[in-house]
Here is the input.
Amino acid sequence: MRSFLDLVEVSSDDIQEILTLSRRGGKVFSEGDSVALVFEKPSLRTRNSCEVAVKRLGGHPVYIQNSEVGIDKRESAEDIARTLATYHRVIAARVFRHDVLDRMVSATDRIGRKLPIINLLSDRSHPCQAIADLLTISDVMSLGNSFSGIKIAYVGDSNNVAFSLAVAALKVGATVSIASPNEYSFDQSSRDYLETLGEVFFTLSPKEALAGASVVYSDTWISMGEENEAEVRRAIFSPNYQVDAELMASANSNAVFMHCLPAHRGEEVTAEVFEANAQTIFAQAGNRLDAFQGVLRYCFA
Ligand code: CP
Ligand code: NVA
Here is the structure.
């Protein structure tokens, strides 16, 4: 039994195991088992894929909104986790601050109610998304489990999605390039860490990042919780960090565009690029279901 908080803590072999487990059959839960799905922020894909995945694995999902629990406002993260641990086999949570997840793990450990805690997106990382991203890249490019020789270019905000994508991709042997403006690039310690994992390039130039890339990836310029920075961010990212057809032409001729969604046409991607790649993007969204099944199987493997 183990938690799944950040791919930093998951070995390359274990990431490969999760990819394999994502596509394997078999239940995880027994009659009466349930999973708490706690959301401090909104969600379409994560909530739906997690509920369906839990059901398919034989469990009962319980969806909990922040307005009901009020993490660290109505009640501390520690008390919420220790309460939920008395009812459920797993706590999966989408939180603003990553340390809330660490505190949930420590609190449940302290009372001997250790159970898997799963990160459904924090300010630091989005590991379930990155597993779905690797599944999609493998499917689209018929790679199996070998990602070496594949270059993935990320354009835009060096955020939670970018971090998990880079960690996952580097750990399975892909090359990664990241084009972000100075203000929204990874800090030096994150860069140093990513450089220990494999071949990764950081640049201010999206065009440079896309050279030789088979996958081009983007996410919103304004993540949940950053809405008050929207105007400042738009002014910095626009127009250079928008993925349009002209920029896509800098990548390999058969390159695909991927997006974790929700997408903002006219901001990080044009409608033209988005629609030309819609098949891949919605396969990616669909793979969140396989990915969460893989993560649950891994937590109990
Ligand atoms: N990609 C993703 O996590 O989407 P939701 O915010 O809709 O869950
Ligand atoms: N970076 C985005 C991802 C949403 C799935 C956010 O944190 O809001």
